[in-house]
Amino acid sequence: MNEPITSTVGPLSGQKPYPRGPLPVPLLTVDERSEFWDQVSYEQNGCQLWTGDVLGNGAGCYYLRDAAYQAHRVAYQNRVTL
Known about the structure:
This protein is α+β, with helices and mostly antiparallel strands. The protein has helices at about 30-35, 70-80; strands spanning about 40, 50, 60-65, 65-70. The chain has a domain at about 30-80. Helix content is about 20%, strand content about 15%. The strands form two sheets. A two-stranded antiparallel ribbon has the order 1-2. Strands 3-4 form a two-stranded antiparallel sheet.
């Protein structure tokens, strides 16, 4: 029997199986903020270098509440909203 292929999730259904794009960055608690900024090296020339975990592409990675976030996004979100 040649029944048509159907799917309830994925491209055949027209639904995306998971949301696309980066996760929204949560605001850090006081303890999380301290832990995050302890992983930043402040250079004499004004640069801030990430010393924590790094992804295969060289981007800084910060693990927070069972999820991974790009370190620069966590830094921006938590500096701008202070």
